[in-house]
Amino acid sequence: MAERAFVFRAEQFVQQPLEEVFKFFSQAENLQELTPPWLHFKILSVDPMPVQKGTLIRYSLRWRIFPIGWTTEIIEWDPPHGFVDVQLKGPYNLWHHEHRFVAEANGTRIIDEVQYALPFGWFGRMAHALKVNKDVRSIFEFRKDAIRKRFGK
Fold first, then answer.
1. Which in 51, 60, 110, 111 has the greatest CB count within 10 A?
2. Which CATH architecture does the domain made up of 6-151 adopt?
3. What are the phi and psi torsion angles at 43 (to 5°)?
4. pTM of this prediction?
């Protein structure tokens, strides 16, 4: 039986040109700036570079006391409008993260939509209700603040 997928969506507007915003997000090394320090996030490799469809990105991080290896693949690449990464190896049964960038009158709307599912059946659903949902929201709140600091309102 397939696990239930959760969906998280976030939007943010910045008063910067589409091409500049996409350029920042397309450089894997900038993920560090967008990730909260409590995750102890570190990029291990990006291959090939520059990022494109088929690029594999390997990271290490720590959730609470648990070290986690994570590998994602860029499966869609549509500069400067968006890209999609999926987890190949990591803590989720499913991680599908769509990044979209939309030019608006005086800036860019950044849209993140993540579909994710946890392993371990009912235990995974309980973990989501008790902690994981809050952590995902906290990570994206940190990301929103980091984007605001980087690009302004």
1. 110
2. 2-Layer Sandwich (3.30)
3. -80, 130
4. 0.90
Average pLDDT over residues 19-44: 94
Structure tokens at 54: 């088929």
The structure tokens 């009158």 sit at 105
The predicted-structure confidence for 100-110, as pLDDT tens digits, reads as follows 999 998 999 99
- Taking the C-alpha atoms of residue 135 and residue 44, their distance in angstroms, rounded to an integer, is 23
Tell me the CB-side half-sphere exposure of residue 41, using CA atoms within 13 A.
16
Which amino acid would we find at residue 78? D
- In the sheet that holds 82-89, the strands lie side by side as 6-14, 107-117, 94-104, 82-89, 66-78, 56-63, 42-47
Residues comprising the chain, all counted:
153
Q: SS in 3 state form for 58-78?
A: EEEEEECCEEEEEEEEEEEEE
Are the beta carbons of 97 and 84 closer than 8 angstroms? yes
What type of residue sits at position 52? Q
